[in-house]
Amino acid sequence: MGTKQITVNAEWDPEAKVWVATSDDVPGLITEAETVEALAEKLSVMIPELLEANGALAGTAVRKVPINLIAHREQVISLRD
């Protein structure tokens, strides 16, 4: 796997009021949390577990992997008259 950066995309789900994270770089990754901070904590546990389960770390000495967490939240605001 080397030191390739992993990109995780997080989208705000306004109905569930949670951030939902997925990644094309980590097969099987989908999780949610109420805050971006809580999401980042979950990802720091889940990503290594999934990489190991998927065999992505087999035969490597990789101990650290850079993560790029991109959060997107669309919102409509009201303007004053």
Could you give the topology of this structure?
Layout: E1 6-13, E2 18-22, E3 30-33, H1 36-53, E4 67-72
Task: Characterise the protein shown here.
The chain is an alpha+beta fold. The chain has a single domain (6-72), classed as 2-Layer Sandwich (TTHA1013/TTHA0281-like). Helices cover 22% and strands 28% of the residues. Strands 3-2-1-4 form a 4-stranded mixed sheet, covered by helices on one side. β2 (18-22) and β3 form a beta hairpin. The longest helix is centred in the middle third of the chain and has 18 residues, at 36-53. The radius of gyration is 15 Å and the shape is elongated. The relative contact order is 0.28. The model has no long low-confidence stretch (mean pLDDT 91).
Quick overview:
With about 80 residues, the chain is an alpha+beta fold.
Q: Helix content range of the residues, please?
A: 10-25%
Q: Would you tell me which CATH topology applies?
A: TTHA1013/TTHA0281-like
Largest sheet: 4 strands, mixed
What is the 3D shape? elongated
* Total number of distinct structural domains: 1
Q: CATH superfamily, called what?
A: TTHA1013-like
